[in-house]
Design a protein that fits this description.
The chain is α/β, with parallel strands linked by helices. The chain is built from 14 helices and 19 strands. It has helices at 12-35, 64-85, 115-133, 154-164, 183-194, 221-234, 252-269, 293-301, 316-325, 351-359, 385-399, 410-432, 448-455, 503-506, and strands at residues 44-47, 50-53, 96-103, 139-146, 172-177, 199-201, 214-216, 241-246, 275-278, 306-310, 335-340, 362-367, 459-461, 464-466, 469-471, 474-476, 492-493, 495-498, 513-514. It has a 6-stranded mixed beta sheet with strand order 9-8-10-11-12-18, sandwiched between helices. A 5-stranded parallel beta sheet has the order 4-3-5-6-7, with helices on both faces. A two-stranded antiparallel sheet has the order 1-2. It is globular and about 95 Å long.
């Protein structure tokens, strides 16, 4: 028989060898488990069902369109790294810095950003990154820094961003994003400022969102209201006003907007007497949202001609639907719904909403940061519009961003937010590197502190602007440390109507109000 011998019994040496092998395997498994990337990848942690942290690489959010854009950013980041680590042929190594995009990358029914907002913001930031990386000077990685769909996971993110500012090879020089004015974002901005990290809020509008290192490229609610005041002088109607305001606790934006409306229009339109509140849909459960029956009944019964809406755009369609369903709103008088926002959210310009508005002869009047007509060459587009559109349209074609992707202004404002920081880096780099040519051994890369210093030395002097941003939404700048609480000066504030005005009414269109300079021509750069 082939196997006729007895099995060999293990001696002490055999058992020792086996024990060593088992211990080695166990130790290796433990080390692998401790060092392998988690389900969200390097630099990220999983919080419930979403990833939070800071990364230059791709991760999954569960939304295919968002993930597609994240991969595009990760590819651009990898290319930037390759051009420093291993340039092709005889190309010089190109140094790079990092700018972080801190915002939610996931969404639910009560989140600060919808999936579409996230995608348009990502597309705008990616367009700015690509534009900057095709120019001379240093290149840029766009770090993805998700801080939770409810903006409440920011502490660990800020800690990691702070660490990256001290990276000697590729320092973090600034943060952009910060999509909403809430208690959580106020705390995050305060902490970022405490770490001396220049931060840009592309779509922040609450006038109380201020901190030393926090720069806002959007107009604030007070400046928006001044643009509306100019509009109302041209279109006074009968001054029968009504204020509809969001009573949700913790919503800094809506609270500030209500205060601004009452301050500027309260006496002329008797808003302290004529008003009604509702609970907005964005945030934690504070009761049944979007209850507009009381407001609609009072507006229609009193034949109000000017409604001031102090709430978020995602709640406005429900308000318009309630008005159109109220029998006493029969379209026998003109009604304006005045709002403030970055642009016209696509849900506000659907065929269904347009039918509802026409049923009651109503018009949305939006003091905004971006005019969608600029994309068609109308209403005197800003100087920086063409460069933005050329880059954005390539991304839109490659990734498909849905109809009206520019209307809400998010793409343009996130483009400008990144562009503001990159422009400050380029100016600093040129100054300390004798012209800013790409070289393997620059004198030194700008740091976050250098970028802050450069941003606060920008000046606006009439039609001359030294160091201004030539952006998708206008040419504007800042006027020194702490001036205007770091809100942009000369930012255009177009007033957009939907449904669009007739040609005859359009002849009365005002020149855009310019923040902190008014509506007179020649007071700001074109």
């Amino acid at each position: 028989m082939m196997f006729s011998g007895r099995p060999k019994e293990w001696g002490p040496l055999d058992w020792c060898v086996a024990l060593v092998v088992v211990l080695a395997l166990t130790g290796g498994l433990l080390i692998w488990q401790q060092t392998r990337p988690g389900p969200c990848g390097d630099g990220m942690d999983q919080h419930v069902d979403e990833c939070v942290g800071v990364t230059a690489r791709a991760f999954e959010t569960g939304d295919a369109a968002t993930d597609d854009l994240i991969r595009a950013v990760a590819d651009e980041n990898a290319d930037v790294r390759r051009q420093w680590d291993d340039p092709q042929g005889n190309a010089a190594r190109i140094p790079y810095v990092r700018i972080a995009l801190m915002m939610p990358f996931t969404s639910d029914a009560t989140s600060a950003m919808t999936p579409e907002m996230i995608q348009r913001a990502l597309a705008g930031a990616l367009a700015a990154q690509q534009q900057a990386n095709r120019a001379g000077g240093p290149h840029y990685q766009l770090l993805l820094a998700p801080d939770g769909r409810d903006l409440d996971q920011w502490e660990g993110v800020v800690d990691r961003l702070d660490e990256l500012t001290r990276d000697e090879e590729a320092p973090l020089v600034g943060v952009t994003g910060i999509p909403s004015s809430t208690t959580e974002t106020r705390e995050a901005v305060t902490e970022l400022s405490g770490r001396a990290i220049p931060t840009v809020g592309p779509v922040i509008t609450a006038a109380s969102m201020n901190s030393r290192y926090f720069f806002k490229t959007s107009p604030n609610n007070d400046q928006f209201s001044r643009a509306l005041a100019t509009y109302l002088k041209l279109h006074p109607e009968n001054e029968r006003g009504f204020l509809v305001w969001d009573s949700r606790e913790g919503d800094v934006y809506s609270q500030n907007l209500r205060a601004v409306f009452e301050e500027r229009f309260g006496d002329g339109y008797d808003l302290r007497k004529n008003n009604s509140h509702f609970i907005g849909s964005s945030g934690d459960d504070q009761g049944i949202p979007q209850r507009f029956a009381d407001a609609a009944e009072k507006i229609c019964r009193s034949k109000v001609d000017t409604v001031f809406f102090a709430g978020r755009d995602q709640d406005l369609p429900a308000f318009i639907n309630r008005l159109s369903e109220t029998g006493s709103c029969d379209g026998s008088w003109k009604l304006r719904i005045l709002k403030i926002g970055i642009g016209l959210e696509p849900t506000l310009s659907t065929k269904a909403i347009e039918r509802g508005l026409r049923t009651i002869d109503a018009t949305i009047v939006d003091a905004s940061a971006y005019d969608p007509a600029w994309a068609d060459g109308k209403n005197s587009p800003p100087r920086g519009s063409a460069a933005f559109l050329a880059r954005f349209q390539e991304i839109e074609k490659a990734h498909g961003l849905g109809p009206s992707a520019l209307d809400d202004g998010y793409a343009a404002m996130y483009y400008d937010g990144f562009g503001l920081l990159a422009g400050a880096v380029d100016r600093t780099y040129r100054e300390v590197n004798e012209g800013g040519t790409q070289t393997e051994q620059p004198v030194r890369l700008p740091t976050a502190k250098d970028v802050y210093s450069t941003l606060t030395t920008s000046t606006v002097d009439g039609s001359v602007c030294s160091g201004c941003l030539v952006g998708a939404s206008g040419t504007y700048g800042f006027t020194g440390p702490g001036e205007n609480d770091q809100w942009a000066v000369c930012k255009p504030v177009p007033v957009v109507e939907f449904p669009p005005a007739s040609d005859a009414a359009d002849a009365k269109r005002q020149s855009p109000y310019r923040t902190y300079r008014g509506d007179k021509t020649g007071v700001c750069p074109p």
